[in-house]
Amino acid sequence: MGSVAEAEGTVYLEDLEVKRKDVATLVSVPASRTETNPAIKATGAAVTGKRQRTLMEMVVGSAKTKGPEQASKKAKLTRTCSTISAGGSPSSSSPVVTTFGLQPLNSVPFSMQAFKDSLTEEQRRLLELECETMGKSWLKILKDEIKKHYFIDLKKFLWSEGVQGPDVKTNKVFPAPRNIYAWSNTPLGRVRVVIIGQDPYHGPGQAHGLCFSVPHGVAVPPSLRNIYAEIRAEYTQFSPPKHGNLTAWANSGVLLLNTALTVRNGDAGSHSKRGWETFTDKVIEVVDKYGGANLGGTNGVGRGIVFMAWGAWAAKRVEKLDKHPSPLSASRGFFGNGHFKAANDWLEARYGKDELIDWCKLDLEEPAQSP
What we know:
Helix content: 25-40%
CATH class of the domain at 112-355: Alpha Beta
Structural class: mainly alpha
Number of helices: 13
Order of helices and strands: HEHHHHHHHEEHHEEHEHH
């Protein structure tokens, strides 16, 4: 089955209450209501080196890869209305009410014991980490994905690299095994913004499972300093913290997802093309279906979320959400793009003021555990 975006139509416009057009973000929204909800998408420079790049490198240069024909394309707007069947919570004796073929998130059944019983002995060994550390709102939707051959092959590779379960320590791969799925501590039904990174920081002590984020006590990386500078430009009251821990955003419904979830010590990109990209593509597909499912006024499936895709590889991750993308130039760079206010403007129009992201609040330390 196709995604909700495919079933309902995805809304794409060139301007999101932002004066500048040169931005590098994407908003994907199922058009389940008739409001005109804009979305923006732009690609960045291609990945060419082994070292991790700054945000400026990710974004600047995209104009060099865009031809006049591509730059002149107009965004596509599709709007449809939906009606939801009324009914109570599903039970074993009553049919499950679905919306666009999707079962409401909270009514999707899941038994950890039944799932473990369905695994072979090898799968139980390889998937112990996922069973123990992945947020349950994600695991119940991704349980079939992690049993696929490509994912088992990925886990065999990681086992050979030293990732051999939740409690086996290794200094060869980052982040620590228990932090690989830290992003999933943001409950699926509460996600309303997705920020996509590339791969984890490859220096000791830096990566902790949230893209662009580092634990307290670790120097703020250049890319995150650029993010802080942009927030400061949009919200003058923001005082950039001396730390780089973005857990507060994760607790607020911002999914901080890297494209690859692990990396070899000191070797940027070393775990790319091993299967993580396929898995995180599935994660994005799941968010497209269920992101925001538990926000006010929803019916158990997604009503639209904001994707911030900085760089060509990130744009590739979300391109399937729109069959007719309209890439915009990012020739003026990352600064001044207005992403953060634009995201909140859209969230307020879609969900109301109670669902805004407080981009200026970064004082929490540990992610809230998802149910």
